[in-house]
Amino acid sequence: MGGKILYATDLRRPSSRMLEGLSGFRDIGFKEIIFLCVIKDRPEDITPEVFEQWKKQLNSYGLEATIKIDSGDLSGCVLNTIHENQISFAVVHFDKKKRRILFGDPIVKKLVKDASVPVMIVDNDETGLKLTSKGAFERILFATDWSQASEKALQIILGFKQLIKELDIVNVIHKKLTVRDLRQLMEKLRETRNKCLKQGIDAEYHVYAGKTADEIILAAHDYNSTSIVMGTTSEQSLKDIFKGKHSCNVVERSPVPALLVPF
Fold first, then answer.
1. Other C-beta atoms within 10 Å of 224: how many?
2. Which of 1, 2, 182, 214 could be stapled to 159 by a disulfide with Cβ–Cβ 3.0 to 4.6 Å?
3. Domains of the chain with CATH codes
4. Tens digits of per-residue pLDDT, 128-146?
5. Contact (CB, 8 A) for 247 and 112
């Protein structure tokens, strides 16, 4: 994949644990990272020196780090930085519980709708993080419906093959299938698995039945996933925002990092 990474947060003193999830990015072509700290109130109290330890850690991973302090809305600052700095991959780290409101998280909704690059969303509550030496992509849960967005997400996954130890491919069904439908579904799952096996990724496939977001999160728990990957589109995200389902719902509730790949 390669390119430049954005790591953004609105936490005044975020832990450095999630940075461990970026330790292998140099191996897949990433060389630069911008660490963006967005503070709404009293940004003058935050100085670059606060993040020098972060910078040293990122440099130790072979990533040339730049620190940027900004004020305003987190999602707006993230989108502006992506556009202005030719970012190709973004990580957004914030307190989802603090931000959650009745109709969903405004940060999540904005990023799902408008981000032009893959965005991994990480909760400040790191009890769900299961990072190892390979980082956040060691055990991926890939939720697919074989849409164009899902196929693009698969291509991103294949680009991370050096960091992946295990991949679980999941499709969630919502109705009773005919024998023919089931055969077609299983064939699609086998084809997707074979694409991954050809790239040296140890992949298995699974079928779940029920509500999409519930089943994706359940599957991530079942397979001890370190991250969830999903494709999304602007049209889909508008539907998600209105109904509170699928991409937004998974991201808001997932205890592990969730990567959204826009189409």
1. 13
2. 1
3. 3-94 (3.40.50.620), 139-262 (3.40.50.620)
4. 666 655 678 899 999 999 9
5. yes
